[in-house]
Glutathione S-transferase (Rhizobium lusitanum), 468 residues
Amino acid sequence: MVLYELAGADPELLFSPHCWKVRMALAHKGLTAETRPWRFTEREAIAFSGQGYVPVLVDGTEIVSDSWRISQYLDAQYPDTPPLFGGEAAIPLAAFINAWADRTLLPLIARIILLDIHDCLAPVDQAYFRASREKRFGQNLEAVVADRPAHLSALRSALSPLRDALRKAPYLSGVTSAYADYCVFGMFMWARCTSPVELLEADDPIFHWRDRLLDAFGGLARSARHAAIDGARP
Amino acid sequence: MVLYELAGADPELLFSPHCWKVRMALAHKGLTAETRPWRFTEREAIAFSGQGYVPVLVDGTEIVSDSWRISQYLDAQYPDTPPLFGGEAAIPLAAFINAWADRTLLPLIARIILLDIHDCLAPVDQAYFRASREKRFGQNLEAVVADRPAHLSALRSALSPLRDALRKAPYLSGVTSAYADYCVFGMFMWARCTSPVELLEADDPIFHWRDRLLDAFGGLARSARHAAIDGARP
């Protein structure tokens, strides 16, 4: 399999939250894919997929884009590997959690790390990123991230339901992790790979959940390349 | 079975979001319980349950409080009735959605309907409600609800993940409703029963999902008593 993943100026800096959902899903299932680093401005390189965003998974003659559709594809195509869901009833609930990560967490984290992401990108991508994100937020990047304490506070408040759930079980999916966990964890990897800002306090149950997932699959996520801005990240 | 439920001055005005979760859960399973109306200030009436909040379900010699624990009890105790979850994997994900309803939606809806709730209560409860809620919000009730357009806008934005999920399936739980739906629907019943404010726009997929649940189980929710403030509620 080949997985097209968003990369920074450093081709080993793979930071997309949606690509991280797929990386963790592949590891969960014991599957491997060769990474093909891709930049925002390389639309023609994935034009074969019929759309313009990563992740794109190529599995023999199958071409699957969109992280959610890839998760469904992997469970259908590889039924003898550990399931990402665990029954039909869990799939729509996991879809909601994926939407919560994308619609609620992603914009809040963006307001903290957007300028750090910019600084990780190849120069040609920086111009695209600045223009598209400044249009989306209606402000220049520096203004979007200006009030970091307020944005951190808003994020930590929005994380309340995750915190509650993790007081009942070690993972969002229960006693072991599954795709719903990876949907949310992808957001934290996005920040970890690009920014020196610590999103969580050390006494937060979410901090410890994130630690468990950083260590999962032989430390796949913990050992991933990140922008070594402060050199002190654990 | 007997279910202790929060009531307004009118004993048939049953408006607690958590009690509505249980009402819908009982209907889903084809079970019935006799309602025992209860007011905030009647702590002694449910002291037998070992705590001070409703819902409290009494089933023979079993006493179960807390809507989430009641949902687990019902599936365990009545395994031959339709399941509220649908597999072990769905339970922790539904627990997250319950926490999202309680932690994210409930405070946002409170900022819209708090004064309307107050006006539905028996006089003795009004004093308790005003004091406890003004302490919680750090403002008087009139100030909490003052900027209704802003609160409605914040609520509709926070509902984005639900909207996304309901574009994929008719219910949060998929093709049929289940407990995760009732957790969220309870919040809308709380508002419907106490307030004339319409929380949703008519072209919102959530509006139509709510309509389907209002009609479920023979129109249990649609026919429920509500504060007929404007007389024009559908």
